[in-house]
Amino acid sequence: MLTLTSPVRTWAHGVPAWVKLGALCVWTLALMQMEGLRLAAAAAMVVGVAASGGWGFFRHWVAMLRPLWPFGVLVVGWQIWLGDPWAAWPILARLGAAVGLANAVTMTTELADILALLTRLARPLARFGLKPQVLALSVALVIRFVPVMLLRYAQIAMAFNARSPRRAGWRILMPVLLATLDDADRVAEALRARGGAG
Predict the structure, then answer these.
(1) pTM for this structure?
(2) Domain locations in the chain?
(3) CA separation for the pair 105, 20 (Å, rounded)
(4) DSSP secondary-structure letter at 196?
């Protein structure tokens, strides 16, 4: 499978995973309390963090934000319908800043490090019957499947555009869904063949 980790090395790659994930949690909570200029400055700060990795890293980071545009259109359209379009910008700023920093953390952290950290954090839950390895593996699969789904969407959209003058849009949602379910089924079979998650 593909990975979200950026091949472009930056200073953030050397920061321990627990520091980055802890900072991300604190940052996301803080964003919910910010308004006005503080919120704008926070969003600009996230852009600055991504830009500090160099042009190659920043371009990849921007590309990872593209899936957010449908949500942005939905939020703006809803606020226009309510009669207050300016109310959309704090929502979009929080969403962009939170997802942007999360992308930066994911792009600069090896999946194995995230997996090991989640396994350690989930150990206390073992007394309640939840296996830490299962939780860590579930999170890892979600992270791994994001780029796979984006690639699948791009491939199906390209195939549609080669056969039709119309834009793909909603017409390929069902093929994308079926392809995703097929990928998930094959991953499940592979896990079962290897004895499951342990």
Answers:
(1) 0.69
(2) 1-109, 126-198
(3) 6
(4) T
Show Cβ contacts of residue 17 under 8 Å, excluding neighbours closer than 6 positions: 109, 110, 113, 114, 116, 117
Residue 25 CB neighbours (<10 A): 10
DSSP 109: S
Asked if residues 105 and 114 have their Cβ atoms less than 8 Å apart, the reply is no
Alpha-carbon separation of residue 195 from 16, 26, 120, 186, 191 (angstroms): 31, 37, 22, 14, 6
Is 28:96 a contact under the CB 8 Å cutoff? no
> pLDDT, tens digit, for every residue of 85-103?
888 888 888 888 998 998 8
**Helix boundaries (H) for the chain:** 17-31, 36-51, 55-64, 69-82, 88-107, 111-121, 132-163, 173-193
Task: Write down the pLDDT at residue 2.
Answer: 40
Once rounded to an integer, what is the mean pLDDT over residues 127-131? 77
Q: Using CA atoms, how far apart are residues 79 and 19, in angstroms rounded to an integer?
A: 37
Distance CA 116, CA 18 (A): 10
Which among 81, 19, 96, 91 has a CA at the least distance from the CA of 50?
A: 96
Question: Is residue 191's pLDDT more than 80?
Answer: no
